Amino acid sequence: MIRKLAVEGVTVFPRQEVFTFVPGVNIIVGGNDSGKSHLMKLCYSITKWGCDGNRRELPEVWAEEKRLRRDLLRVFGTHNLTSLTARNRGNGVAHVHASLEGAKVPLGAAELDFSFTAEHEEEGLHIRKLPQRFLSENAVFVSPREVLSIYPCYMQAGKRYPELLDSASWELCRALEEEPGTQPVPEGLRYVIKQIERLLSGTLQRINGRFYLKRPGQEPLELNLVAEGFKRIGTLGLLLGNGTVRAGTSLFWDEPEMNLNTTHLPVLVNIILGLCRAGVQVMLTTHSLFLLRELVIQLAEKPNDKISRRFFGLQPPGDNASGVRTSVGNTLDEIDHIDSLEAEMEQADRYLNMNFEPTEQA
Known about the structure:
By secondary structure, the protein is α/β, with parallel strands linked by helices. The protein has two domains: 2-137 and 248-352, Rossmann fold; 148-247, no CATH class. It contains nine helices and 14 strands. A hairpin with a 7-residue loop joins strand 5 (105-117) and strand 6. The protein is globular.
């Protein structure tokens, strides 16, 4: 799990920003162009890089620098590190410090400190501090792009040209190839799978390399005919079933509410908090006021009162500002106002204040 991240000079963060995450649910709130996905992708890149417990104890620094550079470029989908520096900072130098922890790896034993410089590609990334130990858990990124319907094409292309595909989708497709293990799914995660099946009104099946939705009394339905939001939720169900997402996993979920009706969001929040209760660290981004309020409501309920939670607010800079404005709190009310949320609340107030005249009956 990622527990702390300090960034300076990276994309939309020209000044030093420090983020401290919790083992439960971490909610990154912000509108378009606020840097939500940038923060998620950076955390995922580092966590994925640090989750390799089978690696030798004393890796060569140059090899780790090369691997970290490759992971950053592929996760962000950029061609060079220069694109990841905050150019308005002046010197084009980015500095990142991260702390990871996991089973048998206490906080402080897995520290990563590195920097990279604009216009210095191959030799531009330098690791100042490597972890003493690497984690044996894993990291999973569920991006807004739905992968189940493109799975056959992605697997064919990815096995030959993986560098041409965005890393998050490719890694997700590779994880879907995993067969379920011999160990039964723990009770807490079985509950989550049942909630996903409730949302889908059925189960997902893989037949001849393609995925189908099977509902009671119906023939298997091709995934291209299933709603986009359901396919993303179904992806998570498959990863729970084959053991990719398990206790200790860091799950990065970019806008989980995308393409879902608000009627489905209470079940979605129940799924998210069920993962946390089962020992999964969840990092999600959103700008949905409905989802945020549902999170607050369900986090206040007794089954969820022990789930650690943290809210991060990201607000794009104004005309005379430089860099994203950040705030943090253990409740939604503790973060600074977010323009996109304020707009929703302001519209609701205007609607409620309207005077609707009764229409005359003919």
